[in-house]
UniProtKB/TrEMBL annotation:
Highest taxon, organism lineage: Bacteria
Span list, region Disordered: 1-30, 129-178
Pfam family, one: Bactofilin
Organism: Maricaulis virginensis
Signal peptide positions (record): none
UniProt-recorded name of the protein: Polymer-forming cytoskeletal protein
Amino acid sequence: MFNKAKETSSSDSGASFAPPPKRTAMKSKAPSILSSDLVLTGSIVSDGEIQLDGQVDGDVRAGSLIIGEDASVSGEVSAETVVIRGKVTGSVRARQVQLASTARIEGDIVHATLSVEAGAYFDGHCRHSSDPVQTGDATKSAKPKVDAPKTDSKPPAPGKPDPLDSLEPPVAASKSGF
């Protein structure tokens, strides 16, 4: 009875507290631009487009990546498409890789398609893969975790023979001239 009156009066006042509309459509349309005065230490992850003009010390993963002429990345680059005009020190994994004439790559490239302009510098190995982005993620997660062997510092339980008791100490055969 009282709730109905409150609902009517609040809806009559015109104030609504509806959540803001989702902006998923804009997220995929607008690129993220990291300016030339930016120095970032850490990893960047985006499903959309990134234009990098600054310096990144870490891994960069994106849907589409453009590395500007004055930009540098020290780490692994992984994307669907990559255009490199600057410097990358580390491996590059992408379906489509384009090295501009100003590019400087020091690391391996795994690609589905690769184009290299005259003047680009590339020091590393180049390997074709039908799915380079997925291959890189699968190999990282497929590595088995190796645990250190467990050591038992407890003495053996009473009544059980100690396996080390049967070992004899080594005999040192020395020829000393003293």
